[in-house]
Design brief:
Layout (H helix, E strand, L loop, with lengths): L2 H17 L6 H8 L2 H9 L3 H16 L5 H9 L5 H46 L1
Helix pairs in contact: 1-4, 1-6, 4-6, 5-6
Length: 129
């Protein structure tokens, strides 16, 4: 398994759906300027599995990196006609991993943020004394 694709796909998902919308109003203005079908897609693809599939498919096309090398062998063994099917299966498997990573990060972030806030409160109370 090539972890590079997983890290890149999860990073793209986090950037587009979890970070850019909160970095001022410029990103949402860009989304608002898109044609209505693209705005609808953006609104519906918050799911890490759905978005992860399309991100992985696009990244594979751009980089040529396979998440699972077995799918690259599948495409070679079954000739060029199987290449789109191999891309599909690789993106599907990557999407499941992206979903798992995003759910894990979200599950960890809640307690981590509470702990960080408690530390800030403690430091503020100590400095106030």
């Amino acid at each position: 398994m090539n972890i590079e694709m997983l890290i890149l796909a999860a990073s793209v998902h986090a950037l587009i759906w979890e970070h850019l919308p909160h970095w001022g109003t410029w990103f949402m203005r860009i989304i608002g300027a898109l044609p209505q079908p693209l705005q609808t897609l953006y609104g519906q693809w918050h799911c890490p599995y759905c978005a992860g599939f399309w991100i992985a498919l696009s990244l594979h096309g751009i980089t040529g990196i396979w998440t699972f090398d077995a799918f690259a062998g599948f495409a070679e063994a079954w000739s060029g006609a199987a290449a789109p099917l191999a891309w599909f299966f690789d993106a599907l498997a990557t999407a499941l991993l992206v979903k798992t990573v995003m759910l894990s990060l979200n599950a960890l972030s809640g307690p981590a943020l509470k702990g960080y806030q408690a530390k800030l409160d403690f430091m503020a109370a100590r400095d106030a004394e």
